[in-house]
Amino acid sequence: MNKIHQLEALIQSWGNVIIGYSGGVDSTVVAYAANKVLRSNAVIVLGITETITSENIELARSIAAKNQFNFREVEYKELDIQNYAANPVNRCYFCKQELYRQLVEIAKQENIPFLLDGANLDDMGDYRPGRIAAKEFEVKSPLIEARMTKQEVREAALIYGLPNYDKPAAPCLSSRIPYRTMIDLRSLTMIAQAEKFIRQLGFINVRVRHFGTTAKIEVDSWAIPKLRNFFAEVQQHLKAAGYREVLIDEEGFISGKLNREIVKNEA
């Protein structure tokens, strides 16, 4: 795949890099390529916060260990970030800003000149306030520079033999809470428990949108009949987790559905 060679050559030309790594397919491909061409000169850092599921953390760690990444972890609390918990429409800006601050500190200590992320070409067409923070910190996006779409990133991951090549997108748990609704640890815990239970029933794409004490479940539209068959069991589990009302979103799973509010307000 020619774009893989472009990606690797680009990263190799930078010589010494630090990578924000989440265990998602995009940042994993960047991390793998960097590790392949730069070895220990690619420092790969996982940020651990209360908005990332334990499953994603364990996946990221296992991939790093298997591929012998020069791997680090930084742990901090996103809910302590100024402006984050209030959940403004540009919440992701504050999240990424703090992550890049953490990475820059490591980069300064170890004299690493380049900071990389896992943004791909498709991200350019979505609402991504985190890209503003990336620009402020002069973060390089090798997948964008190599003109790689999400599908091409998945194909690269398959060629690299990465186990998450077909892993569904897993944005942070805060993305399930409508903008301008306060984010707290209890809400994040309820969402994580609910989604984990539903995934264990065999559903692939799962979002539990959190409206206070109401949970609205999104699964792929073709999987809604299956969800109805499990609904009594799902409802019981989610009510035990703290929800009073459990609904099925009949439209089905659509990534970034809560961003419609932004589009509507800007129209």
Q: How is this structure best described in words?
A:
This protein is 45% helix and 14% strand. The protein has two domains: 159 residues, Rossmann fold; 94 residues, 2-Layer Sandwich (Alpha-Beta Plaits). The protein is α/β, with parallel strands linked by helices and 267 residues long. The radius of gyration is 19 Å and the shape is globular. The C terminus is likely disordered. Strand 1, helix 2 and strand 2 form a beta-alpha-beta unit. The strands form two sheets. It has a four-stranded parallel beta sheet with strand order 3-2-1-4, with helices on both faces.
Low-confidence sequence ranges: 263-267
| Percent range of helical residues | 40-55%
Seen as an oligomer or otherwise, the chain set is: single chain
Give the CATH topology of the largest domain.
Rossmann fold
Number of alpha- plus pi-helical segments = 11
Span between N and C termini? 41 Å
Estimate nothing, just give the exact number of structural domains.
Answer: 2
* Largest sheet, spatial ordering of strands: 3-2-1-4
Q: What class would the helix/strand composition place it in?
A: alpha/beta
Q: Name the CATH homologous superfamily of the largest domain.
A: HUPs
Strands, total number: 7
